[in-house]
Write a structure and sequence with these properties.
Oligomer: single chain
Helix content: over 70%
Strand content: under 5%
Radius of gyration: 22 Å
CATH superfamily: MFS general substrate transporter like domains
CATH class: Mainly Alpha
Amino acid sequence: MTNSSSASAPSLASEIEPANAATVSRYSYYALGVLTGVNFLNYIDRQVLPAVAYAMKRDLHLTDTEIGAMEDALLLSFTVLAPLFGRLGDRYSRTKLMAGAATVWSLATGLTALVDHSPVLPPSLHFIVPVSHVTVALSGVAMGLCLVRSLVGVGESSYSTITPTLIADYFPPQRRATALGVFQAAIPMGFALGYVLGGVLGHFFGWRIAFMVVGLPGLITAAVVWQLREPERGASDRLLHPVPEPQQGKAQSESWLRTCWRILRTRDWLLSTAGYTALTFVLGAFATWASLMLIEDKKMSETAANIVLGITVLSAGAAGTFGGGWVADRVAARKANGYFLVCAVSSLLGILPITVALATREPILFLPAIFLAIVFLFSNNAPFHAILVNSVSPTIRATAMALNIVAIHAFGDLISRLGVGVLSDNLGAGKLPTLAALARLLGIDPAREHLTAALLVVPIALIASALFFWWGSLKQQTVRANSS
């Protein structure tokens, strides 16, 4: 593995640096297509587990808590290793790191199908959370599945940390949100196909075959990523804002802790990360529990629930991601705080449809409500990542992405994926009277529909997301007014 500032970077710089700040080379679009395709496979692999969770619960006698723990195991390794890959991504070949990542997560996805056949499994785990007295119990099989899913997180951590920084070097700032919107559109598309493939393969061939089948394509595409040429770091940015050589050298020699402290003190990075952390809480809860909620509480069949979710996430998620990036670029062209404004409004508009989707039992109401909620949730993806990559200098972007990943997962979906499962099991056992009372107020039976009742924490998180993004928009507006 060689340092990316060496021979390969200059040879590509002339090819990807546009003649002016508005043009983009063909190779940049090709690279974006490859990176988006692999991200698509990434989210298929991640989403197969929720799609077959009902069958796994039945065959392996798993609880909601154990399903949530498996999702958290992936995210825990993903989060813990993100700073390491961020540091590596700022110094070494990003394309080689990403190719290795795709190989690791693809192999680990296939191995998920075989864990319960292992002759040696970890010991079971059982404890009561202090103060709340909530019970958490994990069997040996569940612990083994958690270990394998954590390997999936190792690969995904490298890819998700580094890829946006690579795209930022392929595209100039005024085209960046749209390019990132294309890349982020793979998330709802991967979610969608993960639901459909998992549901269909699980129905006809069993959940084990589903894991094996979806892991294979990642091994093939890893070879394509390996061959991508590395752009020079900050090449697109220097067309508009040249960075003096001494500053570039200073960034390369700066200690990791000092770099992290500089990023954490960056206002736009901090407020946008806080807003997206709350949104990630919502997205994680939906990704893990939507299928089970439709099957167990809305009484849809397993296959129908996954196909309906797949179609809904594909159409609504793509519309939200592409639309959010397109709208955000145009609002930002007129307002300095445009990206923050789009994120704030999107989070705010998602509150009502999510509440309606949880409270009603009629498909004619909850299915359109889910569609609208997904449109608004995914509208944040492109403008948020544009804020993130624009908030720091090109030489530390991978580290900034890594710190963002730590924050949004540690305080976002690491809590919601496992937390909703724990809340569901405890509501079913007659505990948590305050949350049960809120559920009854909305017409939800907390004893019979305990998973839906547990998901009532989602609209609260969206309120927090909207407030943080709105705060960021006010701060940017103030800075712009003072500077003028």
